[in-house]
Amino acid sequence: MEFALTDDQRMMQESVGRTLERVSSLDAVRRGDSAFEALKALAVPGIMIPEEHDGQGLHLLEAALVAEQLGRHVARMPFLGSAVMAPLALRGTSWLEKLARGEIAAGVAISEHAAGARDGAGVALRNGKLEGSTLFVLDFEADVYVVAERNGALYLVSAAAKGLTRTLLPTIDATRSIGKLEFDRVEAEPLNAPPGTLARMIDAGRIVLAADTLGAAERMLEKAVAYSKERKQFDRVIASFQAVKHLCAELAAEIEPARALVWYAAYAFEALPEESRRLAAHAKAHLSEIGPFVARTATEVHGGIGFTDLLGLHYWFKRIGFNRQILGGPERVRDDAARAQGWLGN
């Protein structure tokens, strides 16, 4: 059996890549420019929204292919939460059309369920209203938020809701919008999502993060190889040195099989849902390990200049570091994989 992308999938990924080459250059990233409007023209916000709700009606594999390109270009765009995770919770609601058309963005506040509760964090429903706080909200600069309360029930909250306090949180990744929500008797709309939706959101998010890391790691390897062909020492390009060849070959050897793991996990999300939790956890954990290795080694190939702002490698380095921890670090997701396989009790 051959597992490969279709022509349509390759064309879609290439189209997104060409657009990001134009609108998400390193100078644009430094300025803080968003790629949202350009990718809205390609219907990326509605990639996982059914066609009857004005979306593309595609699957998580296509979303993962887009995420690879976003990681390659360290693009700023509400995608992980707004285009991938939120639509899973909003199925059957009137919000999908607005999301698909790019009229609104949706943040996702479920980190306590994906990465473990932190001191003082957690949202509870009391007398029909939400109270408490939640950290590391994805796609924070949004119009509405999908919020998971402590028991796992999902609610939709307007960004303008009375009693809601929003605080933008600084993280190592300047290309992502992350924040904190505090609830003081906030009105919320219950989402009648099917059982297991919260777990599916987490799985989808982890796979897309792994794909984003894959794209960022590939770009860092390409930059390291290109630099090694230009930089000279002792009247020779450093690409001719055996040690540099070995470093780059090792990076390629780590990245190549990781691509198959990410693609298969994304494919299995719909095709093999009973295996999705395990595969999502393995993909996230593995890319969380090799991503920092690739980032560190590719930076070292550049020598001292690799640590400066001039080349901008730190944008990819920090994005990979952020992806490693959000929605659960390697230890947490491997624990989830063990539970999915029945090795640990629930």
Topology overview:
Blueprint: H1 7-23, H2 26-31, H3 36-40, H4 60-72, H5 80-89, H6 95-100, E1 106-109, H7 111-115, E2 122-126, E3 129-138, E4 144-148, E5 154-158, E6 164-168, E7 178-186, E8 189-190, H8 197-228, E9 232-233, E10 236-237, H9 242-271, H10 276-301, H11 313-325, H12 330-340
Parallel strand pairs: 1-4
Antiparallel strand pairs: 2-3, 3-7, 4-5, 5-8, 6-7, 9-10
Helix pairs in contact: 1-4, 4-8, 4-9, 5-8, 8-9, 8-10, 8-11, 9-10, 10-11, 10-12
How does this structure look, described?
50% of the residues lie in helices and 14% in strands. α4 packs parallel to α8, α4 runs antiparallel to α9 and α8 runs antiparallel to α11. The longest helix has 32 residues. It is globular. It starts with 6 loop residues before the first helix and ends in a 6-residue tail after the last helix. The chain is built from 12 helices and 10 strands. The chain has a 4-stranded mixed sheet with strand order 1-4-5-8.
List keywords for this structure.
Butyryl-Coa Dehydrogenase, subunit A, domain 1; single chain; 4-stranded mixed sheet; Butyryl-CoA Dehydrogenase, subunit A, domain 3; 346 residues; Butyryl-CoA Dehydrogenase, subunit A, domain 2; alpha+beta
